[in-house]
Design a protein that fits this description.
CATH class of the largest domain in chain B: Alpha Beta
Order of helices and strands of chain B: HEHEHEHEHEHEEHEHHHEHH
Strand order of the largest sheet of chain A: 2-1-3-4-5
CATH superfamily of the largest domain in chain B: Aspartate/ornithine carbamoyltransferase
Structural class of chain A: alpha/beta
Distance between the termini of chain A: 8 Å
CATH architecture of the largest domain in chain B: 3-Layer(aba) Sandwich
Oligomer: heterotrimer
Number of helices of chain A: 5
Shape of chain A: globular
Chains: A alpha/beta (about 190), B alpha/beta (about 300), C alpha/beta (about 425)
Helix content of chain A: 25-40%
Number of domains of chain A: 1
Distance between the termini of chain B: 16 Å
C-alpha cells in the first residue's frame, strides 16, 4: 500500500525540547519523593525507549547535577500478541546493580498506542522486583487505548486514525531525530 | 526459521545465530531473578515424548518449557500405551487430538522425529534420534563455546571418540560448520562412518597431533559394549590412544576448553582431573542447555498461530 | 473356449499383424486374418510380447493374507503383464515341504490368473542349518525347480555347496539372496555418504559381492546352476561378468526398483523406500542398467514384497523391508531401458519372459510368438504415461515406491493360454 509522506510532526529541535521538558518534570516530581532523584530509575522499553531513557538521564544530570540510574526491559517474552505478530529477536534487559525494589521506576517508551506494551512491561517489572511506584513517560501519545493505561509524562498528544502510522526516528538508531505520521497500513 | 527442528541442517547461519542470541538474552533477563519464569508460552502445550531414557535431556526441556509457562506433559514410553505396542503414528495422532503445540521427541530410531513431523501439526523438536542427530545439544555446545571464547568463526573444534554412533557429533559437525568453526574428528577408524569424508570436517586418527591446534576439545562418550563388537581391542587401549588425560590436556593452547555432552565415563574417554579442571565446561553446558532450549521453544512456538 | 483375433499388434515391436488365438494356442499370424466366431481385440499398434515371467514374487499366503493373497497377487501380476510368477518360500509356514508348495500351487491354479510356481526353501524353516526336502518338492505336483531362502542368505559355505550339488539331480537351481549376515547386522540402508549422515546403519555393497564371488566359485567347482537374486551393486555386475566369461552356470536378476531408485529416497526416512538389498547409488543404477542391457544380468525379477500398513507406517528401523513391483515392473523397464535405447522390445521379451522362464525351467512360457505356441501374451501401449496411485493397485498392500511418479506404458491385455486375464487394462476377474 502506498504511503503518503507528511511533513515531520516533530522536528529534531522539537524532540530535544520535549525531552528537556520531561526531564524537568521528572526532577520536579522526584523532589517530592522521599530520597529525591537518586530514588528514580529510568527503564527504557526497547527498541527506541532505551535511548530515550538514556537521553532523559543525561538531561536530568545536566539540569540538576544528579546522575540517575537507567535500565532497559525487553518485553517481547511478556507480550500477549506473539501469535499475531510472530516471534522476533530479543533485546537486552539490564537493570541497575541495586535492582528496582522500593524505587520509583519510570518506564520510557517512544509511542503510547494500545497500551499493550506497557502492560507487558508492568508484568516484566513485577517479575524483576517490587518498585515503590511505577510511572510512564512517552514521547508521543497517539490515542486508541485498549487497556486502562495512561502516561504520566507526555511529550506530545497526537490525534491519529487507526490506519495511520506514527514513526519515531532517533539519532542513536535511525541517524536522525524526527516523528512522522504516515498514511496506510504497515 | 523452519517449523520443526529435526536436524542441525534445518538452521542456516542466521537462524542459528538468532537462537544463540535469544538464549543469551533470556539468560541475561533471568540472571539473578527470584522468579525465573516468563509468561511467553502461556496456554501452549509442550509434550515431552521420550522413547528412550534420558533424564537429563528430558529435565532440561521440561524446565525450559516450564520457565516459559507452557503446559508440559511428559509422555515416556515406559508405563504408557507405547509399551503396550502402540505405534508411533497412533501416538502422534493422539497428541494431535490433544492439541499439542510442540512435541519434543527422543527416540532410539534415526528419523523418528521426521516421521512424527509428517503426522502432527505442531512443531517437532528432535531431542535425539538414534545415531542421527541431537540438534539442541549442538546449539548448547555452540552457545558454550561462544560464551567462553567469544566467537565461533574460525574456532578450531576437535571432536574425539565414537563418531559412528554419535548423534551429538553429527549435529555438532553440521552446526559448527554452519557457524564458521573448523571441525576435526579424531577416532579409531572403526568408529568413523564410511562416508565421513563427505562431511564438512577434517578427519584424523592421531589425537596428540591435533591437540596443540585445538581451541575446543569435545570428548564423546564411548560405550563399553563397543569393545565386544571389536570396534577396539580393550578399554585400556582405547583410553591410551584416545582418552583425554592431564598430560594431553597440557598440550592444548592456554585458553582451550574441554567439553563433554555427558554422561561421562571417567577414566575411559576423559580422566577425572580433566573433567574437574577449570578448562572443563561440563557443568556450564548443562546450565546453558536450559537457556538454549528456551530459545528454541520460544522461536518455534512463540509466534506460530495454529 | 472363446477364440480371439488380435488385430494390428506388433510382435516384439515389429510390423503390425493379426494374431489368431484358438484353443489356448496361437493358431495363425498374418495380415488381415479373419475368423468367424472369434472375438476381436483391436490392438492397433500395441506391442505384443510373450507373457512376462517373474522369478521373484512374494505372495504372502499362507501366513500374511492381510498383506497379500495368492489371488490378489495373481491379479496384480496379470495387470503387470505376467503369465507366470515364482512364489517365494518365506511364508508362514515356510514353503519347505511338498505339502506347503502344493498348497500354494493349488491356490494359484484356483485363482487362475497366472501360473503360480512355488519356490522351495533351501533349508528347513529358512534357518540355514540343514537342507529341506528339496527332492520331495521337486517331485510334487508343484514341480519345484527354483530353491531359495530369500530374505535370508544361505551363508554357510558348506551348506551352500551341498545345496548347489544336490539340486543337480532334478535340474534345479539355487537362487541365492546374497548377503553376508555378519556384515549386515542391524543394517538399514546402503552404506555410504547418506547412511553416515542419516545415522542409519549401513549395508555395505561388499556384503553382497562377497557372497556372489564365493558362490560363483562354488558353482564352478561343483558344476551346478546358480541364480543370484536382486543384484544391486556395480561390483556384483563385475563379478557376474567375470564368472560368465569363465563359463560358470550363473544367472542373475535385477529388480525394477534397483534400476530406477537410489539411496537418495531414504532422505525422507519414509520406510516405503526400505528394501533388502537396499537402494544403492547412481553409479550402481547405471551399472545395473548396462548389465541388464548386455545380458550379464539375465532377468528382471520384481521382488514384489507386499506389506501391511502397520509394517510400513512406522519409524524406519522398525519397518519391514520390501516394496511392491508387479504392476509397475514393465513401466520401469520401459522408462529405464527402452526409452533410453538400452533395450529393444525383443530385449524386453528376453529379459522379462524368455530367460526367466528358462531359468525356472517353465514349459510353455517365454516362447516365441509363433503359430503352435501357447498363447501366453501381453499387449502393451508403450506411450501412455500415468501417475501411480497406490490406492488403485490390485495388490492388497499399498507400499509402492512409485507413488506419485509418472511412468510410461500400460498393459492393455494379458492372455494366459488363450484366456484373457486382463482386457482394456482391467482384470477380467
Amino acid at each position: 500500500m502506498a504511503r503518503t509522506p507528511q511533513p515531520a510532526l516533530l522536528s529534531a529541535a522539537d524532540v530535544a525540547r520535549v525531552v528537556d521538558r520531561i526531564a524537568h518534570q521528572l526532577i520536579e516530581r522526584a523532589a517530592t519523593a522521599a530520597d529525591g532523584l537518586p530514588q528514580l530509575v529510568l527503564v527504557g522499553i526497547p527498541t527506541r525507549g532505551a535511548p530515550l531513557a538514556r537521553r532523559l538521564a543525561a538531561r536530568i544530570e545536566a539540569f540538576s547535577g544528579v546522575s540517575v540510574d537507567v535500565g532497559t526491559v525487553d518485553i517481547t517474552l511478556y507480550r500477549d500478541d506473539l501469535r499475531l505478530r510472530g516471534v522476533r529477536a530479543l533485546e537486552s534487559t539490564v537493570l541497575p546493580d541495586g535492582g528496582i525494589d522500593d524505587r520509583l521506576v519510570v518506564l520510557v517508551d517512544d509511542v503510547l498506542f494500545s497500551g499493550r506494551s506497557v502492560r507487558a512491561a508492568l508484568d516484566a517489572l513485577r517479575d524483576l522486583g517490587r518498585p515503590q511506584a511505577v510511572q510512564l513517560a512517552v514521547l508521543v501519545d497517539r490515542g486508541h487505548r485498549e487497556l486502562p493505561i495512561r502516561a504520566d509524562y507526555v511529550g506530545k498528544n497526537v490525534p491519529t486514525s487507526r490506519s495511520q502510522q506514527v514513526r519515531v526516528h532517533l539519532a542513536e538508531i535511525d541517524g536522525t531525530d524526527e516523528v512522522l505520521v504516515e498514511e496506510g497500513a504497515r | 526459521m523452519k517449523r520443526h527442528l529435526l536436524e542441525a541442517a534445518d538452521l542456516d547461519r542466521d537462524d542459528a545465530t538468532l537462537v544463540l542470541d535469544t538464549a543469551a538474552q533470556i539468560e541475561q533477563a533471568l540472571a539473578g531473578r527470584e522468579v525465573k519464569k516468563l509468561p511467553t508460552l502461556r496456554g501452549r502445550t509442550v509434550v515431552n515424548l521420550f522413547y528412550e531414557d534420558s533424564t537429563r535431556t528430558r529435565i532440561s526441556f521440561e524446565l525450559a518449557a516450564k520457565r516459559l509457562s507452557a503446559d508440559v506433559i511428559n509422555f515416556s514410553a515406559k508405563g504408557s500405551s507405547v509399551s503396550k505396542g502402540e505405534s508411533l503414528k497412533d501416538t502422534a495422532l493422539t497428541l494431535e487430538a490433544m492439541g499439542a503445540d510442540g512435541v519434543v521427541v527422543r527416540h532410539s530410531a534415526s528419523g523418528a522425529p521426521h516421521r512424527l513431523a509428517s503426522w502432527v501439526k505442531g512443531s517437532v523438536v528432535n531431542a535425539g534420534d538414534g545415531t542421527h542427530e541431537h540438534p539442541t545439544q549442538a546449539l548448547l555446545d555452540a552457545y558454550t563455546i561462544r560464551h567462553r571464547l567469544g566467537r565461533l568463526e574460525g574456532v578450531r573444534v576437535t571432536i574425539v571418540g565414537d563418531v559412528l554412533h554419535s548423534r551429538v557429533a553429527r549435529s555438532n559437525v553440521r552446526l559448527l560448520h554452519t557457524l564458521g568453526a573448523e571441525v576435526t574428528l579424531v577416532a579409531p577408524p572403526t568408529l568413523l562412518p564410511v562416508g565421513v569424508g563427505s562431511w564438512p570436517a577434517e578427519v584424523g586418527y592421531d589425537l596428540d597431533a591435533v591437540l596443540p591446534k585445538s581451541d575446543v576439545v569435545m570428548m564423546l562418550r564411548v560405550q563399553g559394549e563397543r569393545m565386544n563388537a571389536s570396534f577396539f581391542p580393550s578399554a585400556r587401549e582405547y583410553s591410551r590412544r584416545y582418552g583425554l588425560d592431564a598430560r594431553r590436556m597440557a598440550a592444548l593452547p592456554d585458553d582451550a576448553i574441554v567439553m563433554h555432552p555427558g554422561p561421562m565415563n571417567r577414566g575411559m574417554e576423559i580422566a577425572a582431573e580433566v573433567a574437574d579442571s577449570v578448562r572443563s565446561t561440563i557443568v556450564e553446558q548443562v546450565a546453558n542447555g536450559v537457556s538454549t532450549r528456551m530459545a528454541v521453544l520460544y522461536l518455534l512456538l512463540g509466534g506460530s498461530p495454529q | 473356449m472363446t477364440n480371439y483375433l488380435i488385430k494390428g499388434a506388433k510382435p516384439l515391436g515389429g510390423d503390425a499383424v493379426d494374431i489368431l488365438v484358438k484353443d489356448g494356442r496361437i493358431a495363425a499370424i498374418g495380415d488381415s486374418l479373419s475368423a468367424t466366431g472369434a472375438e476381436v481385440v483391436e490392438a492397433d499398434g500395441l506391442i505384443a510380447l510373450p507373457g512376462l515371467v517373474d522369478l521373484h514374487t512374494h505372495l504372502r499366503e499362507p501366513g500374511r493374507e492381510d498383506a497379500e493373497t495368492v489371488e490378489t497377487g495373481s491379479r496384480a501380476a496379470a495387470l503387470g503383464g505376467f503369465t507366470a510368477v515364482h512364489a517365494m518360500a518365506n511364508t508362514d509356514p515356510v514353503a519347505d515341504t511338498a505339502g506347503v508348495v502344493e498348497q500354494v500351487w493349488r491356490l494359484g491354479q484356483e485363482a487362475g490368473l497366472v501360473d503360480v510356481v512355488p519356490v522351495g526353501a533351501v533349508t528347513v524353516g529358512l534357518a540355514g542349518e540343514r537342507l529341506a526336502e528339496l527332492g520331495a518338492m521337486a517331485d510334487s505336483a508343484a514341480r519345484v525347480r527354483v530353491f531359495s531362502d530369500d530374505g535370508h542368505c544361505v551363508s554357510d559355505p558348506a551348506l551352500m555347496r551341498r545345496a548347489l550339488e544336490y539340486v543337480k539331480a532334478f535340474d534345479g537351481v539355487v537362487a541365492q539372496h546374497a548377503e553376508e549376515p555378519r556384515l549386515t547386522v542391524g543394517a538399514q540402508m546402503h552404506e555410504g555418504d547418506r547412511s553416515a549422515r542419516l545415522g542409519l546403519t549401513g549395508w555395505p555393497a561388499a556384503a553382497e559381492e562377497a557372497i556372489i564371488a564365493r558362490d560363483v566359485l562354488l558353482a564352478e567347482h561343483v558344476g551346478a546352476r546358480l541364480h543370484v537374486c536382486h543384484v544391486s551393486t556395480a561390483g556384483s555386475v563385475e563379478i557376474l561378468r567375470w564368472a560368465k566369461s569363465r563359463g560358470v552356470q550363473v544367472t542373475a536378476e535385477v529388480t525394477p526398483h534397483h534400476l530406477m531408485l537410489t539411496d537418495e529416497c531414504a532422505e525422507s526416512y519414509d520406510p516405503v523406500f526400505k528394501v533388502n538389498p537396499p537402494l544403492r547409488t547412481d553409479v550402481d543404477v547405471v551399472a545395473l542398467r548396462l548389465g541388464l542391457a548386455d545380458g550379464t544380468i539375465d532377468a528382471v525379477g520384481t521382488d514384489h514384497a507386499p506389506h501391511a500398513v502397520e509394517d510400513k507406517e512406522s519409524e524406519w528401523a522398525s519397518a519391514r523391508p520390501g516394496m511392491l513391483g508387479l504392476e509397475q515392473a514393465l513401466s520401469v523397464v520401459i522408462e529405464t531401458m527402452v526409452e533410453p535405447g538400452r533395450l529393444d522390445w525383443a530385449g524386453v521379451a528376453d529379459r522379462m519372459s524368455v530367460r526367466p522362464a528358462a531359468i525356472g525351467r517353465l514349459d510353455g512360457h517365454g516362447r516365441p510368438i509363433a503359430p503352435g505356441e501357447p498363447a501366453n501374451l501381453v499387449l502393451v501401449d508403450p506411450t501412455t504415461r500415468s501417475t501411480v496411485d497406490p490406492a488403485a493397485l490390485a495388490s492388497r498392500s499399498r507400499n509402492s515406491p512409485y507413488a506419485g511418479r509418472e511412468l510410461p506404458g500400460r498393459v492393455v491385455a494379458t492372455f494366459l493360454r488363450g484366456t484373457p486375464t486382463v482386457l482394456d487394462g482391467k482384470a477380467v476377474k
